[in-house]
Amino acid sequence: MSVAQVFEKLEQNFNADAAQGLDLVFQFDIEDDKTYHLVINDGTCKMHEGAHDDPSVTLIMNSDTLKGIVSGETDGMQAFMAGQLRAEGDMMLATKLGELFKMG
């Protein structure tokens, strides 16, 4: 599965109910691929390729870590503790990803 397909899967597994009233931008800097960002606005989710001017949080990882987290094989917190995942900005938002998207 390509990185773009992983983000398409994320978009398909979006939990709109959990995103009511939210206005956030999750940016993903994939070290061995491209940068993507997800704009979550009051129950909607749109994927964009490229960097956002002012992301709420930026998650930095390689494509294997991304695929593991989205498939459910890798725990995001364990990846963070192991240094496979770094976050810039509002790190607490990273913990919301599990609520906003069905992983696995």
Please give the radius of gyration in angstroms: 12 Å
What is the helix fraction of residues, given as a range? 25-40%
Number of helices: 5
The geometry reads as globular
Helix/strand/pairing class, anyone? alpha+beta
Order of helices and strands, N to C?
HEEEEHHEHH
Euclidean distance between termini CA atoms: 14 Å
Instruction: State the CATH topology.
Output: Nonspecific Lipid-transfer Protein, Chain A
Q: Point out poorly predicted stretches.
A: none
Q: Which key terms come to mind for this protein?
A:
104 residues; alpha+beta; Nonspecific Lipid-transfer Protein, Chain A; 5 helices; 5 strands; 32% helix; 30% strand
Brief rundown of the structure:
32% of the residues lie in helices and 30% in strands. The chain is an alpha+beta fold and 104 residues long.
Descriptive report:
This protein has 104 residues and is α+β, with helices and mostly antiparallel strands. It has a single domain, classed as Nonspecific Lipid-transfer Protein, Chain A, CATH 3.30.1050.10. Helix content is 32%, strand content 30%. The chain is built from five helices and five strands; from the N terminus they run αββββααβαα. It has a five-stranded mixed β-sheet with strand order 3-2-1-4-5. The longest helix has 10 residues, at 3-12. The radius of gyration is 12 Å and the shape is globular. The two termini are 14 Å apart. The mean pLDDT is 94.
